[in-house]
Write a structure and sequence with these properties.
Length: 73
């Protein structure tokens, strides 16, 4: 019985070290991370103007700076 416990402890310790010494956690985005994500610049597919992801128009997986650029495609 003691050998099984020692073996289990070694396996658990090895798994812990394999994961980088950290237990997996659910990471929730903070307000700062959300703001940083919204402030990321993307390039318009039509006119190559840079706009933030918050202001950009997404159509068919591409970013556009305005509806006019999105309708040109």
């Amino acid at each position: 019985m003691i050998i099984k416990l020692i073996f289990l402890a070694i396996v658990l310790y090895g798994s812990y070290k394999f994961l980088g010494g950290k237990f997996p956690t659910l990471k929730l985005k903070t307000k700062e991370e959300k703001k940083l994500e919204e402030d990321t610049l993307v390039e318009c597919q039509t006119c190559s103007t840079f706009v933030t992801t918050k202001e950009a128009i997404v159509s068919k997986g591409n970013y556009y700076c305005s509806r006019e650029c999105a309708n040109k495609v």
